[in-house]
Predict the 3D structure of the following.
Amino acid sequence: MSARTSKAVFLKSYPNGLPTADDFEIREIDAPSPGPGEMLCRTVWMSVDPYMRGRMRPDVKSYIPPFSLDAPLEGGAVSEVIESNIPDFAPGDYVVDFAGGWKEYYVTKGERTQKAMPNLAPLPAWLGVLGMPGMTAWAGVTQIMDPKEGETLFVSGAAGAVGSVVCQLGKLRGARVVASAGSAEKIRWLTEEAGVDVALNYKDYKNAAELTRALSEAAPKGVDCYFENVGGMHLEAALNCIAPGARIALCGMISMYNNTEPEPGPPNLVNLIGRGVMARGFIVSEYADKAMEFASEVAPLVAAGKIKFQQTEYDGLDEAPGAFIGLFHGDNAGKAVIRVGPDKT
Ligand SMILES: NC(=O)c1ccc[n+]([C@@H]2O[C@H](COP(=O)([O-])OP(=O)(O)OC[C@H]3O[C@@H](n4cnc5c(N)ncnc54)[C@H](OP(=O)(O)O)[C@@H]3O)[C@@H](O)[C@H]2O)c1
C-alpha cells in the first residue's frame, strides 16, 4: 500500500434535478502506485464540464458510462508526472488526461494521455481553448457548419469555453457573428474582446418569441449557421430565423441537463425541411484523428492573440462541486478550472 494519500471527490448520490453540494463527498484515499507500463500523476488543474451531468444519470444510456458511486469522479486534468514506467513519459512532464481530475493523484497507462506544453500556453489553457472545448468548437465550425465570408453565424452559450472559441473562429472566417449569453459582463467581453457583431443577453427575453424578434433584428438576412450549446428557446428562435441551406452544429443543450421531466421539442422543426437545413449532432471524440489539424490552426491564433480566452479559477478540490454546479447558473466566464495542486510552471 502506498504511504501517500490522495484527496478525492466522490458522488454520494445521483442528483435529482440541479445537483447540490450534498450529492458530493470529499474523501481521503490511498494514492495508487504505478505498476509496469503505468505512471503516477499529480493533478495540477482540473476541469468541470457540463457533459459530466449526463454521467450522473445511471438510468440513461449514453455514449459514455455513468459515474460509479464507489470510485472517485473523473474529468479532464493537467497533471505532473511523478513516477513513470512508460518510456514516452518522464517525471516532470505535464500531461493532459481525460479521466485524471477530481483527485490529487492517479495512475494511468497513458493510452489517452497527451503532453501539455507550458512554454506554449499556461497549463489551464490545455483544458480550455487548446483542449477539449477548443477542439469541440473547431470541429463544429470546420467540419460541420463551414461558415463562409458574409454569412451569419449564431452561437448560444457564447461566452463559455466552447462558445467563445466558436465566435472567434467564425469572425476569422469572415462571418457576421451573433452571440447569446447570460450576463452584462459576458455581453461586454463578447463585443469588446471577442469582436462579435451583436451580443444578446438572453435573460432580457422571456420566451422564444421575444428572442426570435431580437435575433431576426440581429440577423436580418437569416441565420446561415447555428452552433447549439443550450437548446430550449434558443433552438426555437434559431429555427425561426434559419436561412435556406443553413447548417446547424448540435453540440449541447445545457438548458435541459437538469430536467426531471422530458421537455417537448421545438414546435418549428418543420422549418428544417422547407429550408433545406442540415442539422448534425456530434461528440468531439468523433474527430480525434483531426487533433493535429486543430492544434496547428488554433495554437498559433492563440499565441498571436487572435483568439482570446477567459477562465474562471477555483482553488482546491473542495471547491470542485460548487464550481460544477455553478456551470448551470452561469457562474463561469470562459473555461471553469480548479487549481488542485501547486502549479510550478
Ligand atoms: N458535443 C461535444 O462533444 C461537447 C463537448 C464539450 C461541450 N459540449 C457542450 O457544449 C456546451 C457548452 O459547454 P462548455 O464546456 O463551453 O460550458 P460553458 O459554456 O463554459 O459553461 C456553461 C454555460 O452555459 C450557460 N448556461 C447554463 N445553464 C443555462 C441555461 N439554462 N440556459 C442558457 N445558458 C445556460 C451558462 O452561461 P450563461 O451565463 O450564458 O447562461 C454557463 O456559463 C454544453 O452544452 C456542453 O454540454 C459538448
